[in-house]
Specification:
alpha+beta, 11% strand, 518 residues, 18 helices, flat, Rhomboid-like fold
């Protein structure tokens, strides 16, 4: 018994300790030295503080720890396994302390510089925090930017963000003579509502939000703060910068935007350090208990000790995702969509979701722009996605349908149908929506499902296969269309892709059937 415990600790616990401590320490140090101390380059704060710490632990978990979990007998009585639960706990135990550490690092670095006037900041050593004795906020001259975001798993949330920048001057008399301003105070108001509301109700809610924000802005004394904090490279910072661009009364080149803080400077760290220590220790204890409870799988343990241990499931999964005969175009399409998403993330546009104006700049389908000569948007938009969840759901849908119809259609016909139905779906979208930025591969994917249904109807597939996958396909298509009717999803593109694909499926069914007979 003691030997078994010792083996579990050596194989699963000690490597976990080294990985969790090493990952958190090395990542935090690199963040500090490269981005905070040396400022070699700028990356969105969300990516550094959450995106990468959440994603990178997946690599050692999948390739190192997942195979080792086989030494534990994690099978349930019904034949299923607890291994997924172990992987999730392991991921949380590594990722969560690292995420909290970045927040602690962000709030711990930087000293509080004190100046008499706001203009003296340029003469000081650059800092993140400033305490200013004398200044004047000119609320009569402001820059304003309003942005709209659609979010949620099914785009069920509609958010309005109002960004305001107010010039910070040395004294009130400067308002009559100054022609440029370098320092600004950022103020943000936001409202969230259901995206399922009709356009008229949204407009009414929007106008009410503007009135309330104006009232709040007029009655608030924004000069009552303890210190100023420089706005970082974040989505909120982008909102303030857009507001600054719309301000035309002053020269705003080289401007710095601050947000105000009303709490003592010493309290900026909050309880972050305690959370860091608490989550780290909790992860260690929970993981130790979890690996000690199950009995060992003697067969897998012997294989591990002999060095003949191999993760066949992972190898088969990775081999499955490689382009190969009869399954060549689908992986390439998936990787193309994922690559474009990653490029947008690295470019600092977001992680969980992207803003509408960024998607428009990158090739989103938008009727006023498309019909004005930018017809390439009908194609480019099908390789763009609104965020991580949108991409993930579409890639699963593409993988499922591609497995069955790419071998039947062949590479050339498959890719042509994907692109053509995608373009027709885009045409349906701009025909139906007057001013909506449409993006996503779902129109083209629905086109493939339409082809699939057409081939099923014409009995191209064996009868037993047809019955099984007809039900699955109808559930998938019906569910997504119903969610689109509820609101927030481009159902016009879905229906356009589905109908065009179905027609193409009927047209080509005879030739496909003849080829399969040969």
């Amino acid at each position: 018994m003691n030997k078994t415990i010792h083996q579990k600790i050596n194989i699963l616990f000690i490597p976990f300790l080294i990985t969790s401590i090493g990952f958190c320490a090395i990542y935090t140090f690199l963040n500090w030295i490269l981005l905070i101390k040396l400022q070699l380059f700028s990356i969105k704060e969300f990516v550094i503080e959450f995106g990468l710490p959440a994603f990178l632990p997946v690599i050692p978990i999948v390739f190192f720890f997942r195979p080792r979990l086989k030494i534990l007998n994690l099978k349930k009585s019904n034949g299923k396994s607890y291994s997924d639960l172990f992987i999730i706990i392991l991921w949380l135990a590594i990722a969560v302390p690292t995420i909290i550490a970045q927040n602690y690092l962000k709030n711990s670095t930087g000293k509080l510089s004190k100046v008499d006037y706001i203009s003296q900041i340029s003469k000081q050593e650059p800092s993140k925090y400033y305490k200013v004795k004398r200044f004047y906020l000119d609320k009569s001259k402001v820059g304003v930017n309003t942005s709209f975001e659609v979010g949620g798993k099914y785009n069920e949330n509609f958010s309005i963000n109002l960004f305001i920048v107010v010039p910070i001057l040395d004294k009130k008399s400067d308002t009559a003579t100054i022609s440029s301003c370098k320092y600004w105070l950022g103020i943000k108001y936001d409202e969230r509502m259901s995206n399922r509301l009709d356009e008229r109700e949204k407009q009414n809610r929007y106008e009410e939000f503007l009135k309330l924000s104006q009232y709040e802005f007029d009655r608030t004394d924004f000069s009552d703060f303890v210190y100023l904090e420089k706005v970082g490279n974040s989505e909120i910072g982008d909102g303030y910068k857009e507001a600054l661009k719309k301000f035309k009364k002053f020269n705003t080149e080289g401007s710095i935007i601050f947000i105000s803080n009303n709490k003592p400077f010493e309290s900026r760290r909050g309880d972050t350090l305690y959370w860091l220590i608490g989550t780290f220790l909790s992860g260690i204890i929970v993981w130790l208990v979890m690996i000690l409870i199950p009995v060992c799988n003697r067969t897998e343990l012997r294989r591990f000790e002999k060095g003949t241990f191999e993760d066949k499931d992972l190898k088969e999964f990775l081999d499955f995702l490689k382009p190969r005969e009869n399954f060549y175009i689908t992986p390439i399409l998936m990787y193309s969509n994922i690559l474009i998403y990653l490029i947008m993330v690295v470019a600092g546009l977001g992680f969980i979701s992207f803003k509408g104006y960024d998607l428009l700049d990158w090739g989103g389908n938008f009727r006023p722009a498309t019909i004005n000569g930018q017809w390439w948007r009908l194609l480019t938009n099908i390789f763009l996605h609104g965020g991580f969840i949108h991409l993930l759901s579409n890639m699963f849908g593409l993988l499922f349908v591609g497995i069955f119809i790419e071998p039947v259609l062949g590479r050339l016909r498959y890719i042509l149908l994907y692109l053509i139905t995608g373009i027709l779906a885009s045409c349906s979208s701009i025909w139906w929506y007057e001013a909506t930025v449409s993006i996503g591969a779902s129109g083209a994917i629905f086109g493939l499902y339409g082809v699939f249904l057409g081939l099923l109807l014409k009995k191209v597939f064996p009868e037993d296969l047809s019955k099984a996958f007809l039900t699955t396909t109808l559930i998938f298509v019906g569910y997504n269309l119903i969610m689109g009717l509820i609101g927030g999803i481009d159902n016009a593109a879905h229906i356009g892709g589905l109908l065009s694909g179905f027609i193409f499926g009927i047209i080509i069914s005879k030739s496909v059937k003849n080829e399969s007979v040969k």
